Amino acid sequence: MVYELIEGGDVNLARDIIRSSAPLQALRDRDITRYTFLERLCKEATFDEALVYGKSSKAKQRQQLVELIRNEVRQVEPSRLLTLAQQAVAFQQERGLAPKEGKFDLFFGSRKSAKHRSSEAICRVLSKYVQSPEEEKVTVVEITSSTAANVIVGRRTGRIEVWNKESYDLRQDLAYQANREFLSDTSGLTACCFSKDGDFTAIGNAAGEINIWRISTGKRMRSFQLAHTAAVNSLQFSKDGTQLLSTSSDHSARLHGLKSGKTLKEFRGHTSFVNAAVFLNEQIVTASSDGTVRFWDSLGTDRLVAVLRGPVAYILDATGNVVNTMSHGKTKDADFIAALVSPQGKWLYCAAEDHNLYVFDLESCILEDTVELETGNDVMKMAYNPQKNEVVLLTVNGELLVMSPED
Predict the structure, then answer these.
(1) Which of 52, 116, 253, 365 has CB 3.0 to 4.6 Å from 267, enough for a Cys bridge?
(2) For residues 329 and 315, what is the distance between their CA atoms, to the nearest angstrom?
């Protein structure tokens, strides 16, 4: 499988499997030479089939695999699979996890999701608007990129709600929420992120604390009481789920170990609030209110999109050099204040202070569309629902705007 991923150009996925899957970690301990060979293949510019398969071939390797698993696989009547699928959909509909009307996509787990995800059309239509009372104002919103149904909505009161990302309402299938019991943090919610499988969420607050919750049970799994000395501004899990990257108004970014419960590393050098940080292959990149983007332990080769407050967005290489720019052409009262890259890397959405949403094609760096937002408030946060291809915007007034593609 790793060979074919590399041959097909999915090098990053192949590298993730090599470094995180249990069988290949066992291979590293048992046969370091074979493991190192796989790591080296990920760095090669071209895929050499003769080097990989030797006197064998891809077809022969596949046939050998078939023979190995043939005796382990049992056949059942196709009608049995259909019955199980129908029962599963009925259960999800009863729990509010699946729509009761219209066609339901078994593969993607929602209506129309396959069409939207594959096309990744521009989200220019307001399909849902949510306004909460001032005392219940939404301060944090995040959507899992996995197939899990979870949306985190944090309120001013400290209540943390788990919503269904198909319908954008409270998940009643979670026992604790059905009993009107909620996750809670009364120190002022400021940041949130999801684990890769969507079942764990990390939530930061204004006191510099970070708590890790398991959504399926509502239990707090880990707490970093002294993660920072000021408000937590952003959070991101590592791909293997063992580390958590955080930024703060204390001018630092920090890397935390989820197993040890300790802060592993601190990144200092910015002279103002650190607003965002991401893992980029084997490096960490941070962005700050001091107007700089910093690269730490830079070993990667991917590009990075940097959007500072102003009328220009930048594309940087792994060394921090600007390779291209994007702008709406306006010089006054239209600075970008929030930004989001679509999951497939096709579009860059930039919300500006003139209450427009500017959409750039990341391949051509051309302004593709300008969407006038139906709000008079600035956007403070943007999140993406990949299963429905929708952009959710949170304003400073606590409004939630769901933007969808045109039908």
Answers:
(1) 253
(2) 17
In the block, residue with structure tokens 């204040």: 337
pLDDT in tens, 332-355: 999 999 999 998 888 999 999 999
Tokens for 161, please give them.
């709600």
Give 266's strand partners. Answer: 254
Per-residue pLDDT, averaged over 48-62, amounts to 84
What would the two tokens of residue 381 be? 């946060």
Q: CA 336, CA 122: separation in Å to the nearest integer?
A: 18
| pTM for the structure as a whole | 0.63
pLDDT mean over 145-156: 86
Residue 341 CA, distance from chain mean position? 10
Distance of alpha carbon 269 from alpha carbon 323, whole angstroms: 24
- Residue with token string 């965002």: 276
The H or E element spanning position 274 is: strand 274-280
Among left, alpha and beta (phi > 0; psi -120 to 50; other), residue 168 is left
Spacing of C-alpha 302 from chain mean position: 17
Rg (CA), the chain: 23
Q: Which two tokens stand for residue 38?
A: 């796989």
What pLDDT, on the 0 to 100 scale, is given for residue 89?
79
